[in-house]
């Protein structure tokens, strides 16, 4: 527990910047395409690293990737790639940088075909009654299916575990611990959330 005595998920007390992220972002449902794309990109960069590393650098990532406007990122070329590889404020992994640019192009295709990223992604929201207790798994049938479909459409760095972490953070799943004071608030937010069509 933190000094305010509120019971949180265990991970929320493991780094100084986690409580604010835990209390104000993690698990609230999101239907904004740019925010969804940002989170997919940050999950890409997190692969093999800690979320704290990425969260600490998030503002740098936003500046480097045009606030994750996928219309702009899709146009990145050799000049922008070189700049990103020299940007000490982000994770300078060429495969991941190229994956983000590729995924921006795939995002444009998805919006053209599906209407929005949100409409497509929220089709994979799990039935809460089928999920095991919170904090007990790292994938589910829906994260596996979402991963498979995105890969089929040419997306990169979108494995089932990465997609499950994405679903947890973007509110498709309420994975706050049973004792966590945020669990009920997320439940209420999910109940009031209008799923995109």
UniProtKB/TrEMBL annotation:
- Which BP terms in the Gene Ontology apply to this protein? base-excision repair
SUPFAM superfamilies per the UniProt record, alphabetical: DNA-glycosylase (SSF48150)
What protein am I looking at?
DNA-3-methyladenine glycosylase I
Q: Which PANTHER family match?
A: DNA-3-METHYLADENINE GLYCOSYLASE 1 (PTHR30037), DNA-3-METHYLADENINE GLYCOSYLASE I (PTHR30037:SF4)
Q: Which UniProt keywords apply?
A: Metal-binding, Zinc
User: What highest taxon heads this organism's lineage?
Assistant: Bacteria
Q: Which residues bind Zn(2+) per the record?
A: 9, 22, 176, 180
Q: Which Pfam families match?
A: Adenine_glyco (PF03352)
User: What is the source species?
Assistant: Marinomonas polaris DSM 16579
Q: Any stretches that span the bilayer, and where are they? A: none
Q: Name one GO molecular function term.
A: metal ion binding
